Amino acid sequence: MNEELNIGPHISRQFDAELDEIRSRVLKMGSLVETQLIKTLDALREDDGSGIKGVSKLDRKVNKLEVQIDEECTQILAMRQPAAGDLRMIIATSKSVRDLERAGDEAERVANMVKQALTNEMQRKLYKGLLGLGELVAQLLKSTLDAYARMDIPGALQNMRLDQDIDEEYSRLVIRQVELMKKNPDNVADSLDVLWAARSMERIGDHCINICENIIYLVSGDDVRHAKFKDIEEQYAGGGY
Amino acid sequence: MNEELNIGPHISRQFDAELDEIRSRVLKMGSLVETQLIKTLDALREDDGSGIKGVSKLDRKVNKLEVQIDEECTQILAMRQPAAGDLRMIIATSKSVRDLERAGDEAERVANMVKQALTNEMQRKLYKGLLGLGELVAQLLKSTLDAYARMDIPGALQNMRLDQDIDEEYSRLVIRQVELMKKNPDNVADSLDVLWAARSMERIGDHCINICENIIYLVSGDDVRHAKFKDIEEQYAGGGY
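ok -> structure tokens follow
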């Protein structure tokens, strides 16, 4: 499966328009998830939870878009019977929207935890420790959407490297919270909440990486889901896809 | 989208055979994940980690099957251009194998943690607290595969109820561990590991529920992903699907 990605015009202009429509809906959906995360980080940075209010509403929009895009993908499969590159585009998109939807769920979870934490001085301080991780994850989400928009393998690979930084930051954060829990056993429940929130952020990173794998599959036809990152990087280093 | 599920014979017997083949591979994949989980619970119950050794090998098989089934689904979409019920079967299957693969990853994660814990008297005791949750999750996984094999909406709904029990058991477990952490701050890291393992088990339950939602979509054509369980239950109570 190494056919060229079919990005030329189709016989049917209508079909082109449908594919464009789907792609732009995916980007819209992704930018809603991004906004969820950014609103949460802003609230945390500025000790002001008022901007978080809208996050659940955004998540409902994300969910609606997932169902809508999925229906459109199914329609196209049924009506257009696409081949090769277009077929991969539809499959990869259908998978990516599921990842975006789950990333949205995690973002909503973090938002609700932060909203709660901002009402309590002690928790607020603990939660500030999430900012570094959150910013890395927001950066990854943004560049994942960029890579999807441009169907960009080098961009997808770059994102995989960024995810390694995220994993390291996450590990540091866990170690820090465990130390805090040992020192202040009474605050165990609060520290644990911070860890759950951190885990959710790290999961958003994982969903981004799934999307990046889908981009590689979509452009090259190669399924890299269970390959080691080093091998993936070597394979695409020369740009021969 | 409420067409009858096309379960009658196709014009092409070969096509029937291909669909059967895919279904049986999905069940094979699911039973491998089930074995991963059961081996881990047995080891925990019997204080004997020797059976866990094979779990990572099983997970590699699960990963291979995911890629294989996905390729077969893509082939069928490209070559057979299936309509209505068959198309839904392919889409739902492709999504379900992704959930099974992730459930397998979580199962492997738990297996490795249990293997480690069994080498330490103190950790072994803490981990025993996971057995109740683990058994519920194993039960859910088994009945999810049954529901998939029989394309069974009442079975899928029953599983959604079981998942609520799992969520309750999970919450009890978290509360218990937080109490333990407060009492024994030196063991915070160990209790935290138990919580990560519990979280992974709970995630396996979530993946099962995703598969059950796929079954409902597959049989009825209804997308219930973002519906409330109460509403789903009411909708299908009369069997009018």
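Residues 13-232 of chain A form a domain with the Methane Monooxygenase Hydroxylase; Chain G, domain 1 fold (CATH 1.20.58.220).
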